[in-house]
Every structure is written in C-alpha cells, then in structure tokens.
Amino acid sequence: MTWIVQNLWLVPTLPMLAAGIIALTRQRNRLLAASLAIGSMALSLILSICAFVHMLGLGNRGDHAVLTANFRWFQFGNEWLRLGWMLDPLTSLMLLMVTFVGLLIFIYSVGYMAHDENFARFFCFLALFAGAMLGVVIANSLLLLFMCWEIVGLTSYLLIGFWYGNPRAAAAAKKAFIVTRIGDLAFLLGMVWLYAQTDTLLFYDGGAGCLEHSALIHLVASTTTGLAPSTGIALLIFCGAAGKSGQVPLHVWLPDAMEGPTPVSALIHAATMVAAGVFLIARIYPLMSAHTGASITPTIALQVVTWVGAITAVFGALIAVAQFDIKRILAYSTISQLGYMMMGLGVGGVAVGMFHLITHAFFKSLLFLGAGSVIHGCSGEQDIRRMGGLRKFMPITFVVYAVGMLALCGFPLFFSGFWSKDEILRAAHTWSVSRTPFYMAAFGALLTAFYMTRQVYYVFAGSSRFAAASHDSLHAPTFQDATPHASGLPHESPAIMTIPLVVLAVLAMLLGLIGTPAWPWFESFLDNQPAAVSLAAFLGPGILPVMLSSSLLVFLGLKLGWWFYGRKPVESAESPDALSELQPQIYAVLAHAFYVDALYGSTILRLNDWWSRVCDWLDRRVWNGAVQTLSYLVLRVAWLDNFFDIYVVNTGFDEGCSGVSRGGQILARLQGGRIQTYLRIVGCVLIALVIFLLWGAKV
Predict the structure, then answer these.
(1) Are 350 and 424 in contact (CB under 8 A)?
(2) How far apart are CA 486 and CA 369, in angstroms?
(3) For 572-629, what is each residue's pLDDT tens digit?
(4) Interatomic CA distance for residues 499 and 542, integer angstroms
(5) Rounded to two decimals, what is the model's pTM?
(6) What are the pLDDT digits (tens) for 79-110?
(7) Which of 13, 78, 89, 664 yields a CA-CA distance of 20 to 30 A from 428?
(8) What's the CA gap between 637 and 626, in Å, rounded?
(9) Cβ atoms within 10 Å, residue 405
(10) Which residues are bridge partners to 80 per DSSP?
(11) Any residues with CB less than 8 A from the CB of 315 and at least 6 apart, and which?
C-alpha cells in the first residue's frame, strides 16, 4: 500500500481539524480563521493532486484501480464492524474537483464576507462542510459514507441559516434539514437491508465487499417477494440521493437554500451537497445495474433513476424561465442540471453522468460566484428587474458570467457544458427502453439557453435600473457589505473575488476537452484504460446528428431569449415580463413553481397539522384520562392497603406483642431469684395438691 492510500484520511480530516480549531478561537480572530480554512483546503488539494497522479500512473500501467485501507472500528458479539477508505479513479477526480473548487470559493469568501461580524464562524462551518463532503468521497464503507453524509446535512443547515436573524433564512434551513431527512430515512433503511443481506457495508474488501461479484450475485438471486433485494436496496438508497440532489419531488428545499450567503450557494449547488447524491449513485452503480443472466435491458433501479432525472431536468428548467431572483434562477437551473446528471447515470453509466457533474461544478460555481459579485456590486440587490446595464460597471464580472452562461447553455465546441450535455443526449438517444427521455432532455436544453439568455439581458444589458438597496431590505441584518458604494452606482468586486472567477471561467471553457468523442480521456480514466486521440470518432453512429441537433436547440434558445428580452430592452423595474404578457396563466404557474409548495402545504403539511391536533386531543382527552384514571385507581388501592396495614395487620400484631409482653412480665415475677419465693410457691402447690387428693379420695 502506497503512502498516499495510507494517508488519504488526511484529505477530509484537515478541513475538519481546522473547523474544530476555529470553533475554539474568538470571533475577532478573522485572519486566523480564514488562514486555517484556506490553508487546510490547500493542503487537501495537494494531497488530492498526489492521489490523482498516483491513479494516473496505475492507469498507464494497467494495474488494479481500486485501492483500499480497511480497519476494525468496534466489536459487537463475535462480529467486528469495519470501516475504511478507498482510492479509485472516481475518488481521485472527485477529490480534485471538491478541493480545487472549494479552495476558490474559500478565497472568494474572504472578500464577500469581509464585513460580516460572524466571519470566523462562517469559515468554521465552511471548513466542516467541505471536510464532510471529502469524507463522503473517500469512504469505502456505506456506514462511514452515511456518517459523513449526515454531517453534510448538518452543516448545510448551519450555513443556509447562517443569517438566522432573518426568518426566511431560518425557515429555509429547517426546510432543507427536514426534507433531506425524509430521503435519508429511506437511505438508512436501504443500508440496514444491505447489511442484513451481505453481512458487510464495505464496498470493496478483497472480494467480500457488498459491491463485489459474490455479494451482487447473492443480492440478485435471492428474490423472495417478486423484487430482488438488489432492486429494493438500490431504490431506497436512491431516495436518499434524490433528497440530497434535489430530485422531484424532494426538490423543494433547494431553491430556498438561496437564503444563505452566496459562497454557500456556490458550494452547495456546485461542488458538494447536491453533487453528493449523484456521486452516491455513481459509487453504488454496480448495485444499481446488477441483474441476472445476460440481460441488456436496464434494471428497474436505473430506469427509475432515468425517468426521475428526465422529469427533474424539464421541471427545473420550466420554473427557471419565470423567476426574478438572480440566485433562484440558478437554483432551479441546478435542479434541472442535476436531473441531467441522474439521467446520464441511468442511460449512459458512470462516465456520462459524472462528466457532467465535473463540468457543471466549475461553470455553476462560476455562475453563483458571479451572481455574488453582482449582488456585492449592487449593494445587496438580488432582483434582476432592478439591475440592467451592469456590463458597463462590472466588465470582468460580465465577461466571466457570460462564459458560465454559455457553458451552462451548452454553446457548441468552445465550452465544457456542450460536450458533457451531448454525452447525455447521445446516450439517451440510444436508450433501449424509450426515446422519451431524449426528447425531454432536448427540450430542457432549449429552455436552458432561453432562461439564461433572459437572465443575462435583464442583468447586464440595456440601461441601469439600479436603485441602492437599503440595509433593511437585505436578507441578513449582519451583512454589512450592503452599504451602497461611494458613487451610489454598481461597482466591480475586488480582486480577491474576481480572480477566482477568472480561473473558473478558463476551466469552464477548457475542461470539456477531456471528454470529446475524439479524445474520451474522462471515460477511459474511469475505466482504467488508456485514451487515444481519433478524429474519426466524430463519424461514429449518432454523434454528429446529436451534436447538430443540440447546437440548433441552443441557438434557437438564444434567439428566443434575444427576441423576447434583447430586441427591446427592459425599460423599468415595473415593466411586465414579456412572457407574462404572452401567456399570463402559464407564466403564473411557472412563477409559483407549479404550486408544489402550496400543494405540499395543503396536503402533507395540513395532514401533518391535523394529525398533530388529533395526537394532542388523544393525549389530553384519552391518554391523559387513562393515565389519570389509572393513577386514581392506584391511589385507591394504596389507601386500602394503608387501611388494612394500620387497622388489621398493625392492630393484630400490636395486640399479640402486648399479650406476649404481659405474659413475660408475669413469668418474670415467678423467676425473681429469691429462694423464699420459690419455697412459698412450692408450698402453695403442695397444699393445692393435697387438697385435690383429699377431695378426690372423699368423692
């Protein structure tokens, strides 16, 4: 075992240790807090690079691509519970992405949160969040993964509700925590079921892991209820992934997560929390795809993943069309793109879904941090109707945001989103079950180009509609960076915020080159195979038609966006949206997110409220009455017992004791120790005896 595998545990431990140290320091130690958090992430990045280079070397030599380090944790009965960590191509790529993007977000946060009074506490939570996600990535045990998974959920609650003085932020934090717990409950049940079937939760353990051949054969073959355990376990674990990754119908927490600081939004929506669900499905893909015989039909679990992903992709994109909060548009875009990732896993496998996850991490973090730069420059304003003309005031932010927007739209050839999205479309086009997911994904691509063009025209084009936001209008009373700029106009963000944006913009353009049909390095690396460059691969079945179709859809979406919002720029913040004038009823439905929250409020929440009232009534009237009756009966029995004890038991016992005492006193007088008394008694007895004998003789 090489040193990097032995010490891989340091990658998540360093940020967690930094979080612990920051938690013990004083709030005013701002420089120390930022230095510890950034330094720990930088060291984790260095270790991640070493792990990635090591896996590159193994791939070039064709060596075994899964390296593990397992250990005993504790014993119960005769069984040992074992945990461990692992290094494989998927782990090395995720470590590299999380640490690199996380480090840029940490650096950006120094400028964005510079005036926040809880600066140190923010970096404490941020470091713990990143450390937990890195723990999810390296875990070779589903139990260890679940523990880190729950820490991710806890820290997301802390970060979304960071500005807890704002009731909306506090409510959003609780909503995220509760909704994701619903999925996590199913995840826990699936984990328990898996352990019951395989007697282990280690993924890989020298042939005895739950994702290895012998365990999978057992899970597929032991069908008892018409559903193979592999399918049931996979679907339960997918519920946990759906909650974390905002899949319909557990997506409702994700848009409200925007109430947290913008760096939190970038970290949650790009590199960590929402990526955890997709990564989980990629990690257990052998279980998701396990089937009997030589069947080429996708398993039930993969079909569910595909359909849920396709529905989510279109659902999120439709809602994003009618939003006005700059971060909320990106939030629904994230929901849509997560749907693409899930669909990619379902129709194309790990490489297809994970390639889009990696590219999305870079251009979506770029977009969120770019949105944060806009909010920072506009004194806290988030309504795109009150912006406009920002390209003149924020040229760097405009350029990098345009790069992120084009990458998200999948603009042909020059941006990473084009290549990763096309991989999904091509796999969906050849999916053996149905072509419908392909058409849904294509429609989602059209909508993505449209709503991002709409957002860019609202924010950066036309004339300025900016009005300096008052401190009271902001999301958090502690966010003091909301004070207007000296000129009263929008302003460019400082270099500590724009430099990470430039780095992400460059990578958002170049990263797609590692996954083109001509050089499929990404897929080859995950498969531990060498990658070859071949331009002839573009002539493969369905490649050019799908590329051409997706490009036309992107151009059509850009054209429609220009037609509605660029051809005639928005004149004032009060101007109605062009779509709302065209189809007000449909627009209202989209603006209210298909009324899903209202539906949950009128059904599930109302049912929960009703059941709570029923439970309260039962508690007060039934269970409390039963308890009171029982206590009354117990008191009556106790009174009777006391009466019997005092007047029967005690009285009889006392009288008996008194009789014994009196008898003893009499006997004591007879045995006083005086001889004269004894002689008198003997004399009296003799006299009585003589009288008795004489009386008897006379008779």
Answers:
(1) no
(2) 23
(3) 888 888 899 888 999 999 999 999 999 999 999 999 999 999 999 999 888 888 898 8
(4) 40
(5) 0.87
(6) 888 999 999 999 999 999 999 999 999 999 99
(7) 89
(8) 16
(9) 26
(10) 75
(11) 248, 251, 335, 336, 339, 594
